[in-house]
Amino acid sequence: MTRFDFDIIIVGAGSVGLAFAAAMRESNYRILILDSGDLPRFDDSSYDLRVNTLNLASETLLNAVGAWSNMQTKRVSSFDRIKVWDSAGGRIQFLADEIGEQHLGHVVEAGVVTTSLVEAIEGYANIELRFDIHLQSVTLSEDRVEVILANNERISSLLLVGADGGNSTVRESIGFNVSISSYDQRALVAQVEASEPARQTAFQVFLPTGPLAFLPLADGSYSIVWSAETSFAAQLMQLTETGFEQQLSAAADYELGDLRLISQLASFQLRKLEADNYFSGRVVLAGDSAHIIHPLAGMGVNLGLMDAAVLSEVLQEGGLESKPDPFQDSRLRQYQRWRKSSNVPTAYIMDGFDWGFRHPSKLIQTVLGAGLTLTNRMDFPKQEIIRFACGLRGDLPSIARRV
Asked: Is the pLDDT of residue 2 over 50?
């Protein structure tokens, strides 16, 4: 090889790192993807507890990079309706036909997304994937960045993309400043069966203890995400299976009838994270490495995928035939400005919803509930909320814009 082993090294073969690579697959950049895990595989015998709610912008991106058709041969579940209510009696319903669309989004297992993206980049000579590779450290100099692996192998590149998640080794190695705070909530996740399922409908209920979402799966069951206050979550995890099913059914106001667990129940702590800067020298962060928000609307993965799309766009502004040094301060600053202008406000909006509907004041809860019901009767504000949630508003990268 030449002076550098690769032009770009991506650490992290999750949806964000792979989507970035897929968006760059027809460029002249030589790209290496490193991941500490195994090669993603799709298991059709059982559902993955980790699911993504993909909006229309993410669908457009994944279609453009060749992954969407692969996903459709596995498992994807569309929804064209979202029903939302709260403990104060407020209700709102969002319909796809209100904005002239056939659906509002898809619920897709994380493994389906990553496996399909790997399939999309297989065969491209400029992209190499290496799994079960553990990163030891990163060294940064003026003209290159070098990763040192656990076996002491050294690999150099012009640019390093840290897409290795919330506990990013890349971010910690470089010393990015981050703001981290706890939501004092745990997300309980499981697959459930409903006695009264609703076709192609997602549900969201705002409870005083935290939001609860039901995401429709392809077989008619639901993936639940219950973001419960830490102490209450501990109580829920201690219940018998029958006890939890009863609590869950009651929490959903029996909107889906009686609910039955058909998988294990898992939980993880929720936190908020925002890097002060998304790049430092020749290292740039994307996805959960740079920002983590509350999962109540499933926006996190969509923000990360837009990071990937924007980064690929600013690096290819000269066209696919050109190959400028991917490290140009102006390009990376453009990426940072572009993504922070979307990621930071979205995080505050999600925090506002979570804070408001969990607030102990009955007055605040009543006002918010009345606001839901009032908005449900107002076409324009309601349509704008739908377009925002679907990723149809804001400064989108060209690869994610719907024609």
From this structure: no
